[in-house]
Recover the amino acids of this structure.
């Protein structure tokens, strides 16, 4: 397995300082993008949606839990399906204590079209405590632009009025995953073939190494066969 160039402490510091300039530029660009996001218009939600949670039936307003802002992660789980999405599960694994969000008048929940019993069984297996609501029988996912996929929606509440302010999916959800962001700081990165890495870096096809967190010890990750490593 190849290594990055080995240099003196002085050379390393110079290279690090050069990269830091670009990192700070990116940080300011992300700040500017967030400022634009805060200025997006909103659209009123006129339809009534029915959800079911551990405390019974709920409306979209109920999902706010009395707060002004709501983030909904659309967890990919269909009724009566045996598929348990490792990608969505990885997102949920990386959602920690919600106290900091709630201190800023914001709630976060998971929502799926599968029945509540199916959701809670899997939540127990995974050891999660995040609120998870079933939207079975409603058009909530479809109205949010999803057809069996995953995504993230943001809502704003003014009394009993609810507005949709933001939506993202695909790579837009990457920022929710602390593990991906931490791997992006390491020499080998996420070790997936789409990444622009030096020749000889270990890489496998995207998605194939992902597992439910209780399966890594029982199912080995996809081996890095010679044809899967860029050399």
């Amino acid at each position: 397995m190849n290594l990055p160039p080995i240099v003196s402490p002085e050379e390393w510091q110079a290279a690090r300082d050069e990269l830091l300039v670009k990192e700070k530029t990116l940080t300011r660009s992300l700040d500017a993008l967030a400022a634009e996001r805060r200025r997006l218009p909103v659209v009123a939600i006129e339809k009534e949606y029915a959800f079911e949670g551990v405390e019974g039936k709920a409306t979209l307003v109920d999902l706010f839990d009395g707060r002004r802002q709501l983030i909904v992660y659309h967890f990919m789980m269909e009724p009566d399906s045996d598929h348990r999405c490792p990608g969505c599960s990885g997102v949920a694994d990386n959602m920690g204590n919600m106290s900091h969000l709630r201190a800023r008048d914001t709630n976060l929940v998971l929502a799926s079209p599968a029945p509540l019993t199916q959701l809670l069984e899997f939540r127990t297996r995974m050891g999660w405590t995040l609120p998870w609501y079933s939207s079975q029988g409603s058009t909530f996912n479809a109205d949010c632009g999803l057809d069996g996929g995953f995504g993230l929606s943001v809502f704003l509440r003014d009394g009993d009025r609810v507005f949709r302010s933001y939506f993202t999916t695909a790579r837009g959800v990457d920022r929710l995953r602390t593990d991906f962001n931490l791997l992006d700081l390491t020499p080998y990165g996420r070790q997936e073939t789409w990444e622009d890495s030096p020749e000889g870096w270990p890489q496998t096809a995207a998605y194939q190494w992902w597992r439910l967190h209780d399966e890594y010890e029982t199912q080995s990750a996809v081996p890095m066969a010679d044809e899967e490593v860029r050399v």
